[in-house]
Specification:
Rossmann fold; 6 helices; 8 strands; globular
Amino acid sequence: MWNDFRTDAYAGLIAETVSVKGHDGKQIHAYWSRPLGCGPHPGIILIPHMPGWDEWCRETCHRFTAHGYSVLCPDIYQDFGFGTPTEVSGRMREAGGVFDASVMGDTAGCLDFLRSQPGSNGKTGVIGMCSGGRHAFLAACTVEGFDAAVDCWGGGVVASPEQLTPARPVAPIDYTEQLNIPLLGIFGNEDFSPTRADVDTLEARLKAAGKDYEFHRYDGAGHGIWYYDKPMYRQEAAMDSWNKTLDFFDRHLKAPCCAGPGCCDPAE
């Protein structure tokens, strides 16, 4: 849980940009944040949101790492060139969006990278917000090897035939029957995408298919509950859902480990 740490415990992290093999074998950049000290550690792949491969994503990697996770956040928009996150994501939208197949290939490559690390405990989750939430749900259904998934206000999981595009040819909800890992959903009841009706539709589909899921919905909140750099931030809902997310990943990705002073002190 957030702020629930021992003051005598070792804390440290390292973060850097690395190159990983992504879709069709291409090399892509990814931001990798991981704990120092004892391991092994579970992994999380954070799929970037529509604002781009931005500072908020990097800071979110650090927060998960502070709670014991090795986190990899790929630049899924690298095909659209380089520049500021705003410039690159703008070019992506002008081009009609990033292709689902490309994002899933990048995600699968990141999964292989994390699971191959000597410090991995063999468990990896996937999470995303906004369009990244949609991609996280899609990855949970179509990319083999994940152990848990979190969809944070992923718009477009439920989509009509008219809303499909060459980049997004299939509505992710249509893959629901392929989901075989636990799913957590975080949603604002005043969101415009997904709407409350969209979340109802997705929940009904998950329930009918007998899937392992839990949804948490917040009144007075819309899109982007966690975005502390924007007016849409909702402090109470954000911290409650952050704690629910950390608890969810802890339950499904972490194994019992040593405890006590000096446990994670690399000097001992």
